[in-house]
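Good morning C.,

I know you're traveling, so I'll keep this short. The sequence:
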Amino acid sequence: MSRSYAFKYIIIGDTGVGKSCLLLQFTDNRFQRFHDVTIGVEFGIRTININNNSVKLQIWDTAGQERFRSITRSYYRKAAGALLVYDITRRETFDHMATWLEDARQHASSDMIIMLVGNKSDLAGNRLVSTEEGEKFAKENGLMFMEVSAKSRENIEEAFVKTAERMRVGYEGRRGCLVRVLVGDEGLS
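The tokens, ready to paste straight into the viewer:
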């Protein structure tokens, strides 16, 4: 019997790391080189198929600027998953990951699935954060990890889908997250 799931998903990190571009690539298959700074939040939806189950991701792209932090924190609540994003060519964005992670853990469900994402892998020649540093931070903090490129689409699909797979597997134990499960034509269960 196939099921349908709906999960709330957030994208967090410093301004300019490519959060909005990740969302656009995943939901619309397009790259926008120049993007206005997100004020508050932006929203996107995409439904994917995981093991013959329909999984609808309601994705909230949060502003990275400190002045919007109080607004974006309210979107952490009931999120089943998150991408914690830094720019591999900007060291300070990686250095801020501990603060972003602490913020997420303080304001979101304790069992939210989080993937650390190093964006802009297409600019590896300008890299200031090694893959090993990202892997180490993720391992030390119990996070999934992947490097991606919003420009080339490298690993974009995989980052969202792998996180969604973990959310789907763990949905039964996560009563605090926005999760709806539809069984066949029977409606909400």
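Safe travels,
E.
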